[in-house]
Amino acid sequence: MAETQQAGGSNNIDVERLFTRSDIQSLLKHLTGLNLREKLFSNRQITQPQRAHYALMTDEAYEKTVKSMEEVGKNFLQFVPVLEPRSNIPVVLASDPEIKGFDSSKYVFTDLSFGLGVQVRSVVVRETDGTLRSATPEERDRMTRVYKGHPYRPIYEPPLFKDPYLQMALDRDDHEYVLDWACHYYLPNDPVFIRLCHMIFDRTVDENKFANLYSTRHFGPFVFYLVLNNKFSPLLSHYAVEKRTEDAANLVRLIKAIFPDEVWSCQMKDADDLKVLQQYAKENTEYEAIVNDLIKAAERQKEMKTSENETSTEMKSEKGNEHTSILDKETFASPEGPLGEMAETYDVRVVRGSFESVEQMQKLDEKSHKGKKRPGNKR
Fold this sequence. Notes:
By secondary structure, this protein is mainly alpha-helical.
């Protein structure tokens, strides 16, 4: 992602290694969120209709189903890889001027060995002047389509990726659809793909449509691009308007992770969201107004949590002080027990044991009653 490095003013950053770092991946996942109903499992256009499934569940079964759906949703949120753009400069392998002018056309040689990937497969070109060089990325893509075509991938670039059709799709809030289609058509290290993603990211910021990429697999690379190029101010303002203090604090942590500060890492290692925002407001006066709104929202949330905890402890203490009657055989069979008036109408017996043991006792009682002789039958 050379363009990103140049825009950020630092050409020494290894973008690929930085993006795959564990702490940065963790922060990006927290910022991406997990919206199951409105994003991950929302209504989508599919080629084959699927029948809806309805089921009656207990609370335990429902919780298990939601957890399994969350695991499936996390797989949908695997980030699009952030790679450096591939080089367009071919490598000269040999120069044979004695065969210059052997033909009026170039010759392309492709390794057709089984099991080789697109990037590993050797493709070389013999020029008309006798030079043998490696294939350019465009030539490699054309040969790949000939020998191993990608399903449902058109030969020519779709017009959706260029204006005015691109802007028309973004006006319809189809940001995710365009980016998914671009991931299907291009390789992640294609310079055209990288420029297209940057264009969509910039227009998303200009139009303040962060919600269109939230809880998608493109939100992590989007935030990474903004922080790396120092374009995160609108996103921080968006968090301030939405009162999302946790996301704002994680964004600040991401900034300090990408551009490390030893003093910050020592002081704010285990700090909470409120302290992180307060310290960032002191160090960056240009964001002081935005961060102050977030600090006020964080203080209100903290006060609300403390009040809720106090009320819950009071309710628990009141419940503990209430008089609770002990349930035994006598109280269970009395009208004051759970049966109420039914205890007077029916003969109530309290039996301890499993259902099978109770059935066996009832059968023994019936046999004993049948074995007894009635007094009226005596002769």
